[in-house]
Amino acid sequence: MDERRIHQIFEIGVWFKGAHALIECIGGLLLYVVSTNTIASWVNAVTQDELIEDPNDFIASHLSQMATHFSVATEHFYAFYLLSHGLIKLLLVIGLLKGKLWSYPASLAALGAFMVYQVYRYSYTHSFGLLVLTVFDAIVMVLIWHEWKVVRQHNPT
Q1: Contact indicator for 50, 57 with CB cutoff of 8 Å
Q2: Domain total for the chain?
């Protein structure tokens, strides 16, 4: 594969990370401004018909149970986590897209730390989504590492 194609894949991966970071920021902000009672009401409204039709529906029953046990402390933790995680990634994405040299090692360190945490969380949740996110992060890390090597070769200062 030629360097131009690898660079295009790098940019696409970074744009996807940026979109994911923006969604995390929006989710974190929403969790700060929406009450736990409102969240529980929304979840109940969304799952009610499904639970009437099938009281044993796996997804609907789990969502409903999670909403019932969703505390203010949990809400604040997730709000802080999503917002801080998203803001860090947005800053790094902007740096990568602008070709800032500091952003390459910083992105590798941040993504590595996020991946360690995701694997730790996976050990408790066994969430398929965490595995997918971790694999995607690993691919983006390889692309960042490659791009960083290319940038340093062309700009050795």
Answers
A1: yes
A2: 1
Residue-level pLDDT at 56: 82
Measured between alpha carbons, how far is 42 from 39 in angstroms, rounded to an integer? Answer: 5
The residue behind tokens 């994405």 is 93
**Residue 52 falls within a domain, yes or no?**
yes
Give first-to-last CA distance, the chain, whole Å. Answer: 27
Residue 157 lies in a domain: no
- pLDDT attached to residue 110: 94
CA 78 to CA 119: how far, in whole Å?
Answer: 17
Helices and strands counted in the chain (H then E) = 6, 0
Output DSSP code: residue 127. Answer: -
Mean pLDDT for each 10-residue chunk of the chain (157 residues)? 88 94 93 84 84 82 79 82 92 94 95 91 83 90 93 76
**Predicted pLDDT at 119:** 92
- Helix or strand (DSSP H, E) at 126: none
Q: Can you read off the two tokens belonging to residue 107?
A: 């992105």
Identify whether 96 is part of a domain.
Answer: yes
**What is the distance, to the nearest Å, from the Cα of residue 51 to the centroid of all Cα atoms in its chain?**
29
Q: Is residue 131 part of a domain?
A: yes
